[in-house]
Amino acid sequence: MKSSGSFYRNLIAPVRRSSIVLGQMLEVILVSFMEVGILFVVSLFFSVKISSSITGIAFMILLIFMASFFLSGLAYFISLSLPNEVIYETIMTAIILPIFFLSTALFPLENLSGGLAIAVKLNSFTYIISALRSLIFGEIIVFWDILPVILLFAVLCCIRFALAIWRLKKETAQ
């Protein structure tokens, strides 16, 4: 897979490795926003209303961008680390499902206790989902409430991007 096809043509192109990684990640982010757009259009048929201001919508776009950037960096890093697509799909499923189920996407944090509550609090997506939920429902959001989530994901995105570039450089050095 890595030694032939369109990905191989990307690898031998005379461009910086960071540009290759960024291009691949931006493709995933674009697809994510297309999916959000489709879900938004479908939600209109069910009379779902977003009760947020323009500023709230801008924060939603930023948070979705950062979550997509982080996950695409994670996926890209893992795909470069594994020998084939089958193992990649298995590993990504084993990562994404716990991230989803151990967040507040399905159940509120207030009803949890013990080890499950600790796991949910350690999951960074708990905070992005809570912030998005608050923005969608139009709750009064103070910038200082969202700032820690933005900073957390800014750090995570930088780390994932750097690791993806490092892995691509290591892959092409072989």
From TrEMBL:
Occurrences of domain ABC-2 type transporter transmembrane (ranges): 3-137
GO MF: ABC-type transporter activity
GO CC, alphabetical: membrane
Cellular localization per UniProt: Membrane
Transmembrane region(s): 20-45, 57-78, 90-109, 142-166
Keywords: Membrane, Transmembrane, Transmembrane helix
Keyword Transferase: no
Membrane-topology annotation of the record: Multi-pass membrane protein
Keyword Membrane: yes
A Pfam family this chain is assigned to: ABC2_membrane
Chief location: membrane
Alphabetical list of InterPro entries matching this protein: ABC2_TM, Nod_factor_ABC_transporter
UniProt-recorded name of the protein: ABC transporter permease
Species the sequence originates in: Clostridium botulinum CFSAN001627
